[in-house]
Design goal:
five-stranded parallel β-sheet, 16 helices, Arc Repressor Mutant, subunit A, DNA-binding, single chain, alpha/beta
DNA sequence: AATCCACAGGAAGCCCGGGAAC
DNA sequence: GTTCCCGGGCTTCCTGTGGATT
């Protein structure tokens, strides 16, 4: 056993007490600086415990502002209280970034209501949507009680698939005989209701709650609270929490980012055998988090999108900033020829560029050059510490070979 | 004030693959 | 095996747009 590579480190006392506490998936028992929001939601959702229908709600706020955490916390408390007083309350969470069509949301809801002995899942495609809808109603009624449907990142769903689903879901109570239902939408976009039909707007937005971003002081409180449980006493050097909170506050007050930063900084200190986390570890962690976020995104892009991104990066490599869509398209065509790939239309490239913008890999700002037309100014957002070419080389479906310092495409064998 | 550029982006429709129902 | 349904990728066609130029 002495030869095992883990033998000498398995018993080493690390800087963590419980690393899980510092992950955003951890569900804390207290949510600092969210008392007001909890109070409003609690007041509304208590109706479910009385067997009435709570108002539908929309929660707004930037990512990492605690919307999902607060909702999960309240729903678990609600469910627990329901069990105590023998009222069935059933919260169902759906992330609309992963499940982003009307059909899939309905199928997911329906499948979450299966009894243990049942095995008849609604298939992921094949049924007419109205059949899935009536099956959902049947299953909800069979279970009875109050169903709380939480649609996280609802803005993404609406922008992609329209508001048909919300129209149907907010009208569910008219169809249900025994059960009741309430919808909670969680959105990063304050203006997403502009995309909704006015009827859906008024039905869904019965109660709007805005989650303001955390400021640096509030983030410090959150980090202190979590680090008490998660990190050994005395392991955090002076100013570390303040730095993590400050960096995250600059990025729209994202608590998730702050927790990540603190966790990774501590990991870095541990890895280098230090007994204390210092500011240097935070800076290293910041760099790594940036890399970790972007690398898998680039790697998983479809090959056509990689070619578009390549065209942008190729221009920047030559010192060209603020490239117009047309220029990107020209370079993209060249890349396609070199790679032997088919060339898509410029309309399609416009959409692919918008998607890259949404993914945060580029910024595309619409500008007007007067008589010389209207276009988008495109710049990459990939930090200098990352070599995107390296990542693309590892891609499964294509590779870029380096030839005398120049990049050229070739099929991967 | 009218014109014009270089797109942006919406709408409609085609094609394909996957799965269920008949 | 055929038909129906859904979703995704894509094209074609089209209208809209902001501001420099005429």
């Amino acid at each position: 056993m002495k030869d095992n590579i883990f033998a000498d480190i398995i018993d080493t006392k690390g800087l963590f007490i419980d690393k899980e506490v510092l992950r955003h998936t951890y569900k804390p028992s207290k949510l600092p600086h969210r008392d007001e929001e909890v109070k409003i939601m609690r007041y509304n959702l208590v109706e479910a415990l009385k067997g009435h229908i709570p108002s539908n709600m929309i929660l707004y706020g930037v990512s990492g502002a605690g919307k999902t955490a607060v909702t999960q916390f309240i729903c678990s408390q609600l469910e627990e209280m329901g069990q105590n007083i023998d009222r069935f309350v059933n919260p169902v969470f759906i992330n609309c970034r992963k499940i982003d069509t009307q059909y899939r949301v309905l199928a997911h809801l329906g499948n979450s209501l299966l009894e243990d002995y049942e095995n008849d899942d609604i298939p992921f495609t094949g049924w007419p949507t109205d059949k899935v809808f009536s099956e959902l109603i049947r299953r909800m009624d069979r279970l009875g009680g109050v169903h709380i449907i939480v649609l996280d990142e609802i803005d993404h769903l609406v922008k992609k698939s329209g508001d048909d689903l919300l129209y149907n879901l907010t009208n569910l109570n008219a169809e249900l005989k025994k059960a009741r239902c309430s919808v909670i939408g969680i959105s990063n976009d304050l203006k997403f209701t502009e995309y909704l039909d006015s009827r859906v707007q008024s039905r869904l937005g019965q109660e709007d709650i805005i989650f303001n971003p955390y400021n640096a002081a509030q983030l410090q409180d959150i980090l202190r609270m979590r680090s008490k449980k998660g990190i050994s006493k005395g392991a955090l050097g002076k100013g570390v929490i303040e730095l993590c909170a400050g960096m995250a506050a600059q990025e729209h007050g994202d608590a998730r980012r702050a927790l990540n930063l603190l966790r990774v900084s501590t990991e870095k200190a541990e890895q280098s055998g230090d007994t204390e986390v210092i500011e240097r570890h935070v800076r290293i962690a910041q760099n790594q988090i940036e890399c970790d976020q972007i690398t898998p995104v680039i790697r998983s892009l479809p090959s056509q999108q990689k070619l578009v991104l390549f065209a942008v990066l190729r221009n920047e490599k030559h010192g060209l900033k603020n490239i117009a869509t047309g220029e990107v398209f020209e370079l993209y065509k060249q890349a396609c020829k070199n790679f032997g790939s088919n060339i898509l239309t410029s309309r399609r490239i416009t959409t692919l560029l918008s998607e890259l913008d949404t993914l945060g890999l580029i910024t595309a700002k619409t500008v007007s050059n007067g008589r010389y037309g209207r276009t988008k100014m495109i710049n990459s957002c990939i930090p200098n510490s990352i070599d995107p070419m390296e990542i693309m080389i590892e891609a499964e479906d294509m590779m870029i070979a380096v030839d005398n310092g120049k990049y050229r495409f070739q099929a991967k064998i």
